Every structure is written in structure tokens, then in C-alpha cells.
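Hi everyone, sorry if this is the wrong subforum. Our group has a chain we'd like a structural model of before ordering constructs, and none of us has done structure prediction before. Sequence below.
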Amino acid sequence: MPAMELKDRLQNMSRKVETLRKRYVSLLSERREMARQIERQELEIAKLEKELEQLRIDNEFLRVAHSVPSNPDSVAKYKKQVAKMVRDIDRCIKQLNA
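Answer:
Right subforum, don't worry. Here is the predicted structure as C-alpha cells:
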């Protein structure tokens, strides 16, 4: 009888090991899929951040464009502001490309 009992225990343990192995493989697959999903979401976030920055720049440009008066002194002032915005845009582009 002890040999049968040992055999039953070994079979039981073997089933448990197989169940754990299957669960491990399943979790590993799930982990890989989650990593791919995180990567896709990070790319989407980066894309949306670029779009947001461009919209902010466009908004600032439109705000300045609608407030430009027609006298020469103000035109020179706004030219300086536009030049500053262009430098800021160039800086942002460099940061995005880095």
C-alpha cells in the first residue's frame, strides 16, 4: 500500500506542477501583451503631447496675430515677439528631436 500511496502523491504533485506551469506560461504571455500595450500607449502619449504643444503654439500665434495694432512702433514690438516665438518653436523642435 505505501507504494500506491507514494504513486498517488507523485501523480497529484505532477498535476499540480503542470497546472503551475500552464499558469506561468499564461501569465508570461499576459505580461508580454501588457508590455506591448504600454509601449503603444506611450507612443500615443508622445504623439498627443506633440500635438498639444503645436496647438499651444498655434494658439499663441493667433492670439498675437489678432492683437497686432497698425502703428509702426507696435509693429516693431510684435516683430520681436514673433521672432522670440520662432526661437521658442525651434527650441521645442530640437527638444522633440533629441
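For your construct planning: The chain has a mean pLDDT of 88. The two ends are 73 Å apart (CA to CA).
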